[in-house]
Amino acid sequence: MTKNIKNLDNNTGTPFVKPLAKWVKKTAPQIGILTGLKKFSTGQSNPTYRIQTIDNGKEDRFVLRTQPVGLLLKSAHAVDREYQVMSALRPSDIPVPEMIIYCDDLTVIGVKFFIMREVNGKTFFKPTLDNYNSTGRSALFSAKIDLLAALAKLNPIALGLDGFGKTSGYIDRQLGTWTRQYRASETEIIPGMEFLITKLPYCFESDPPGFCVIHGDFRLDNLLIQHQSHIAALLDWELSTLGPIFIDLSYWCTMLRMDAKWPIGGLGGINRVRLGIPDEGALIRAFCQKTNLNPPINWEALIAFQCFRFAAILQGVRKRHVEGNASASNSASVGGQAKKVAALGADTLSFYLASKH
Q1: pLDDT at residue number 42
Q2: Residue 213 forms beta bridges with which residues?
Q3: Does residue 2 have a pLDDT over 50?
């Protein structure tokens, strides 16, 4: 097995693989000896790798999730929070991988990381679900509503997550946080973002109703799917926190409003009826029926808020691309989408504000 470790660098091209293998052998021997490591090609934030191991002749697979190298924005790339929330959710009805171990010792591979068990499933990126028929699409969208409703019904305090986020002031904190993150990663002036930063603080007298665990990035490509409509795992909890119930639903609906031709595309310009995909109103009604809640009266402002937040995230991707420490090969095109998302948010908010007069 020592020979395997010596040869790992040549097999993977990953400079930290030998120290990682030695650390696993000493600190997490229950997963076996590390025999392979390969980076997943997708993901814009935290680099993610498949780990292959062997233990008593039995091969197994795990996933390594790390912070990116280089200078990081404050509070970004929070792999510790990912590990904490998925550990807490593991006994619940929310499908998450089994967490193995977390490491904040920067002397091991230079960044913080954690290891989790790999979950079998397919990842899809196009909301049109081109390989599905109408029945299959409807079933998967229904399963996603069920998952969001289940998440909304969980008691964060009972899960041991009482210190994971504050009980009020979510919108104000998010506006402040993402404005700072955007300014720190700004590469040019984006008029749509300037409009949103100026106007959004006056659109929320209070938070939307409810209090739950928020995933923070609820979209199709963060799901592992089995048998077309069974959600085997909800991944990428980097942006998770506690807050109002409608945050994840409004984020998902915002993602679906985006043009289908954008690098991260939605259903904009697509005939949903023809595909058997529920429209936004139907998704909201189904969610409200399952949670016994009414939708926020400022729903369109919430959509604009999500555009602002996602545009700030995309600008961070753009900044990492410029600095040369981006996680994915398509970071330039994805980061460039910040302008389009900001414009969508500005248009949405303009129409909302006009309707108020």
Answers
A1: 67
A2: 242
A3: no
Across 71-98, average pLDDT? 86
Give the pLDDT of residue 247.
97
Rounded CA gap, 315 and 312, in Å?
Answer: 5
The answer to whether 113 and 100 have CB atoms below 8 angstroms apart is no
pTM across the whole model = 0.91
Specify whether the CB–CB gap between 103 and 114 falls below 8 A: yes
Amino acid 85: pLDDT: 97
Q: Residues 6 or more apart from 252 whose CB is under 8 A from it?
A: 144, 148, 218, 219, 283
- Average pLDDT value over all residues in the chain: 91
CA dist 256 and 247 (Å) reads 14
28: which residues sit within 8 A by CB, 6+ positions away?
100, 101, 115
Q: Which of 25, 242, 262, 307 is nearest to 127 (CA)?
A: 262
**Number of neighbours of residue 355 by Cβ within 10 angstroms:** 8
The contacts of residue 232 (CB under 8 Å, 6+ apart) are 95, 119, 120, 121, 224, 225, 226
DSSP for 55-100, please give it. Answer: ETTEEEEEEEEEPPSS---TT-S-HHHHHHHHHHHTTSSS--PPEE
Mean local confidence (pLDDT), 57-83: 83
User: Taking residues 13-37, what's their average pLDDT?
Assistant: 91
Long-range CB contacts for residues 44-49, cutoff 8 Å, separation at least 24: 44/317, 44/326, 44/327, 44/328, 44/331, 44/334, 45/76, 45/77, 45/236, 45/238, 45/316, 45/317, 45/327, 46/77, 46/79, 46/82, 46/236, 46/238, 46/327, 47/327, 49/14
Domains along the sequence of the chain with CATH:
2-117 (3.30.200.20), 134-355 (3.90.1200.10)
Instruction: Show Cβ contacts of residue 139 under 8 Å, excluding neighbours closer than 6 positions.
Output: 228, 229
